[in-house]
Amino acid sequence: MSKLYVGSEIGQLRRVILHRPRRSLTHLTPSNCQDLLFDDVLDVERAGAEHDGFAQTLRDQGVEVLLLTDLLAETIAIPEAKDWLLNQQVSDYRLGKHLANNVRCYLNDLPNITLAKILTGGLAYSSLPKSSSSMVQGLYEPTDFVIDPLPNHLFTRDTSCWVYGGVSINPMAKPARQRETNHLRAIYRWHPLFAQQDFIKYFGDDETINYDKSTIEGGDVLVIGKGSVLVGMSERTTPQGVEHLASNLFKHGQAKQVIAMELPKHRSCMHLDTVMTHMREDTFSVYPEVVRKDVKCWSLTGDESGAVSIKQEDYFVKAIEKALGVGQLNLITTGGDSFEAEREQWKDANNVLTVKSGVVIGYESNAYTNEKYDKAGITVLPIQGDELGRGRGGARCMSCPIERDGI
């Protein structure tokens, strides 16, 4: 059995978790999409076809693709996992004792794959087999959700992120995404692929802890290699979360340095990887309007006691160059004039997934930026993303590597 390990952003990618959305997208409407953190409703069939194309591009590069819905269905085939997950996702405190019990009984009898699709895709009150005498149900409309859909599960990068020999199972910042974490807790705890392997859980595995302001999302975490990790402090990842992750990385001897960068707290750059990704050892894509020279940056170091030393750095580029042992970083900026660059950054031109050093997957519509990558010797494997991109995420956002070579 090959080892669960992610040693870099640019080494050969070997295994990833993707989520092909369907049911959750059918539940997106103009009136609820903002609450579910989507800017628009997507064409369900086209989004699915585009996602299939993305998965096939990965397979053509020799990458093994695991689908989240399948992993979840295989996990809840284990009775203990199913009981735990239903009690977490359909708790008495969420729905009240009476309705929660009725819903759990209904879901418990469904085929595992159907249950997995409902847990990720949502369930309306109108879809329950019979009306309950519960006061809770009596106060809702038939089109309201008894289980909210999780369309952002599409972005498997965020809910958990593998860093060297372990994983952070991330406490998410936004209520619309917080239930995603329990799905990954269950998969990593019980699914045979993971339960039979020895790996570290750095953070977020304990559902009994209120992580409060210590939130992390994987789009902010770049495993740049050579024992270093680059983390963005965004609207979703807090300094408190970074300190906890860094402490546990050092405690387990998995990293020697965490470089933390401040990001603006707005949606167009919700994660570090929407404005900066690693494409080759000395080469990053950057959106210069956000990734500026005056960005605040800190270096975190520590040891196996878990203690963290924090030092402010002058310039993040110098900190990265030192960590990677390269002379000078090559920063490829978003293409076109200022208008085109802003449009292409919004369409995830900087959010590419590196399959191996110098070869990336990105949306074909970002013509100006892709041309700049090509001129810099970076091969772009283009995928369609007219629908998927409207969820505000590109190829890196939509993939959770669980096995990748170091550098």
TrEMBL record:
The active site is at residue 397. It comes from the Bacteria. It is found in: Cytoplasm. It catalyses: L-arginine + H2O = L-citrulline + NH4(+). Pathway: Amino-acid degradation; L-arginine degradation via ADI pathway; carbamoyl phosphate from L-arginine: step 1/2. Gene3D superfamilies: Arginine deiminase, L-arginine/glycine Amidinotransferase, Chain A. This is Arginine deiminase. It comes from Vibrio hippocampi. The gene is arcA_3.
